[in-house]
Design goal:
Blueprint: E1 3-7, H1 18-30, E2 32-36, H2 49-56, E3 65-68, E4 96-99, H3 107-117, E5 121-124, H4 133-136, E6 140-142, E7 161-167, H5 176-184, E8 215-219, H6 235-242, E9 244-248, H7 259-266, E10 270-274, E11 290-292, H8 299-308, H9 310-324, H10 329-337
Parallel strand pairs: 1-2, 1-3, 3-4, 4-5, 5-6, 7-8, 7-9, 9-10, 10-11
Helix pairs in contact: 1-10
Length: 340
C-alpha cells in the first residue's frame, strides 16, 4: 500500500462540493494517507514543508506520492490560487500530483502554480487538458469526475416529482438551462420551486402544456415563503434526486462532464440533457439518457416521451444505474495510483 501525503482543505463536514471529500475518502481506502491543510489539526499558515513532515511525524523517504487536492487552490476573488506559499515542493524528488480544479476560472494563475511547484503529473476533468502538456511541459491525465456509491444510490423512495432542476443557470457560460426555463415558465424571473407557488401576479407560473406535471425548479438563491432555501443539501440532496422521475442536467462551464450526471444515474433519476459533444462518451441517447436538440425544437416531445413511456424510462434508468457502478472514485484513484 502506497504512503501518500495530501494537501487539502478539510471538507469532512461540507454539505456540497462532495467530490473534494469523496476523492480524499478513496485515497484513505486505498493508501496510507497523511493529510494537511486548513481545517485539519495543527495547521498553521506559517508552516513550511519540513514543518508539515514534523507535525505529521513522517520522513520524506517514507512517502511514495505527494498530492495537492482539488480543494487546495484558493477560489476566492483574489488572483492568487496558492493558499499557502510557504509550502514549496519544487525541489522534492518524491512524485508530486496536482488536481486541477475549476478550469474555467483563473487558468493562467493555476498554470503558474503548476510550473512553480514542478509537478510530475496534473489531473484534470477537462477533456482537452492534454493539449496543455506542451504549453507547460508537464504531463496531464484526464481523470473525469466519479461518484461515491456510498453517498449516492437507489434509496427506494417513491417518485414525488415528474421533473426537476436545481442549481445555477450558468448564463455566462451557456444559455441551455435558461432556454429550458423559458420553455416551461411564463416568466423568466421566477425562482420558485413548483407550480404550487405564487410569484407576484402569476398564480400558476408554469405554461399551460406543462401544468399537469409535478415540477420542482430551484435555482441558486431560490427560497420559499419563509425564506428557507429550496435547494436540497446534505443527505436530502441524494434523496431528492431519487424522488424525481426526470432531471434536467447540462455540461458545466466550458463543457465539463459534471458530477450530477453520475449522481442522477446512481439515484435512478432519468437524465434529460441537450445533444452535445461534451459527454466524454459517457452518455448515449436512448440508452442511459434522453437528449433534446440544443435549439429546443424537440424539447417538448422529449419531455413528454420521458414521462409518458414508463417502460422505456425504467429501461434507460436501469442501464444508467448499471453503468455508473464502473465510475466510482475508488476506481479513479486506483487508476491514478497505478501510474506510480
Amino acid at each position: 500500500m502506497k504512503t501518500v501525503l495530501i494537501f487539502s482543505k478539510n471538507y469532512e463536514n461540507y454539505t456540497s462540493g462532495y467530490y473534494h471529500q469523496d476523492i480524499i475518502d478513496s485515497f484513505h481506502k486505498l493508501s496510507n494517507v497523511y493529510i494537511y491543510g486548513p481545517g485539519y489539526p495543527n495547521y498553521s499558515i506559517e508552516d513550511c514543508f519540513d514543518d508539515v513532515l514534523a507535525k505529521l511525524s513522517i520522513k520524506l523517504d517514507e512517502l511514495d506520492l505527494i498530492v495537492f487536492s482539488t480543494s487546495w487552490d484558493d477560489d476566492g476573488s483574489i488572483d492568487n490560487v496558492d493558499p499557502h506559499p510557504n509550502i514549496e515542493v519544487s525541489k522534492i524528488k518524491t512524485p508530486k500530483v496536482s488536481f486541477l480544479n475549476k478550469e474555467y476560472k483563473k487558468l493562467n494563475e493555476r498554470f503558474d502554480f503548476i510550473k512553480k511547484q514542478k509537478f510530475d503529473l496534473v489531473c484534470s476533468v477537462h477533456p482537452s487538458s492534454s493539449t496543455w502538456e506542451s504549453e507547460l511541459g508537464v504531463p496531464f491525465l484526464n481523470l473525469p469526475f466519479g461518484i461515491s456509491l456510498d453517498r449516492f444510490k437507489d434509496f427506494g423512495y417513491k417518485k414525488q416529482y415528474d421533473f426537476s432542476f436545481t442549481g445555477g443557470l450558468h448564463s455566462s457560460h451557456t444559455d441551455l438551462r435558461f432556454l429550458v426555463k423559458k420553455e416551461i415558465f411564463k416568466s423568466n424571473s421566477l425562482k420558485l420551486k413548483s407550480n404550487k407557488g405564487i410569484d407576484g401576479f402569476l398564480r400558476n407560473p408554469i405554461r399551460h402544456k406543462y401544468q399537469k406535471y409535478k415540477i420542482y425548479w430551484a435555482e441558486w438563491g431560490s427560497r420559499d415563503f419563509t425564506f428557507r432555501s429550496l435547494l436540497p443539501t446534505g443527505k436530502r440532496y441524494g434523496y431528492f434526486m431519487n424522488r424525481t422521475k426526470v432531471f434536467l442536467n447540462t455540461p458545466s462551464a466550458i463543457g465539463i462532464f459534471n458530477t450530477r450526471f453520475f449522481e442522477l444515474m446512481a439515484t435512478k433519476s432519468l437524465i434529460l440533457c441537450p445533444e452535445s459533444l461534451n459527454y466524454d462518451g459517457f452518455l448515449k441517447d436512448g440508452q442511459n439518457c434522453i437528449m433534446f436538440k440544443e435549439d429546443m425544437s424537440n424539447f417538448n416531445d422529449k419531455f413528454v416521451e420521458c414521462l409518458n413511456d414508463n417502460d422505456s424510462r425504467e429501461s434507460i434508468i436501469t442501464n444508467a444505474y448499471n453503468e455508473v457502478q464502473n465510475h466510482s472514485y475508488d476506481q479513479r484513484i486506483i487508476f491514478l495510483l497505478n501510474k506510480f
